[in-house]
Amino acid sequence: MLKEENRFSKALKSIARDQELKAYLQNSNELFPIFMKGVNRFVAGETRTEGLERVRNLDSKGYKVSLEFIGENTTSEEECILAKNEFKELIKELGKNQMDATVSFDLSHIGMMISDTLVFTNLEELAKEAQKHNIQLMISMEESQKTDKILSLYKRISKTFANVGITLQVHLKRSSIDLQDLLETPGRIRLVKGAYQESEGIYIPRSEELNKRYIEFVSMCIDSNHPLSIATHDENILMGLKAKGFLNSPNVEVEMLDGVRGDLLKSLKEDNIQTKVYVTYGSEWYLYLVHRIAEYPPNIYTFISDIIE
To answer: Between 1.10.240.10, 3.30.420.40, 3.20.20.220, 3.40.50.360, what CATH number should domain 46-281 receive?
Structure first.
């Protein structure tokens, strides 16, 4: 089954950036309404209001939340400024309502594809606003060719702002060295297996080897008493970490995507483990959805069931 899931995951990743397929789905009067019935489980909606409503609902149930306005690879400076302003208003809303939430984003959404000056100016503005409202920021990780630039920008901002965290993809072979460097920075580290299609030889495919590596990375963070988000839906990994007592460490939280394994996250919360739900909103849901199904292939069953029902 694992072999077929890996094949399915790889096939999905290959169409994640297919702009023609994306446009076809979004412009189809027949397919779009049907497709959205499945999307709605994984994406709160297209507006900030819908995103915040999902946060309020989860907050009332005792979950922490990480909220993202979906977008990446923005190539227009005007659109980057609009995205930065959207994140800034989101930070203000969360602060005003005193919600226990993190704001997540891709650096390529706020200017990294255009210039280091633009992206860092926008990042610094968001970090200052978040600091005023006691909000945490989390920089997402993107394709491996962007890793050096993302880490460089993160290390630069972390010298001034401890409220900014960084995501690390465990499946990249280089990540063991990157983790050693990141343990010297103050921000929270979010560990993910990795969902992007990468070139052969630079990553470890889904396997027992990758699972073992994930646990080793968690152990390194805990040994360093570093703030950590364990972002996985892998029940075997989580149960192994729980048995070791790692999930009860004060700096540790378990994070899962909205609409995925809510039953498992609920059971962890009931065991007094810190839990967080990753919520998204916005119109750029296609790439996000494809990656979420590729990351956890059984999501396709839920997606199709939602459409049929």
So the answer is: 3.20.20.220
Q: Spell out the residues 6+ positions from residue 308 whose beta carbon is closer than 8 angstroms to its own.
A: none
pLDDT at 284: 73
d(CA 283, CA 235): 31
Alpha carbon distance 309, 305 (integer Å): 6
Burial pattern 267-291, b for ≥16 Cβ within 10 A else e, equals ebbeeebbbbbbbbbbebbbbbbbb
66 within 8 A of 255, measured Cβ to Cβ: yes
Say how many Å lie between the first and final Cα of the chain, rounded: 26
The closest alpha carbon to 45, from 260, 257, 258, 280, belongs to: 280
Residue 248 has pLDDT above 60, yes or no: yes
d(CA 206, CA 11): 14
Can you give the pLDDT at residue 285?
66
How many C-beta neighbours within 10 Å does residue 23 have?
11
Q: Which residue has the higher pLDDT, 101 or 87?
A: 87
Which candidate, 282, 186, 172, places its Cα nearest to that of 226?
186
- Output the pTM of the full model: 0.86
Query: Does 13 have pLDDT greater than 90?
Result: no
Residue boundaries of the structural domains of the chain: 1-43+282-309, 46-281
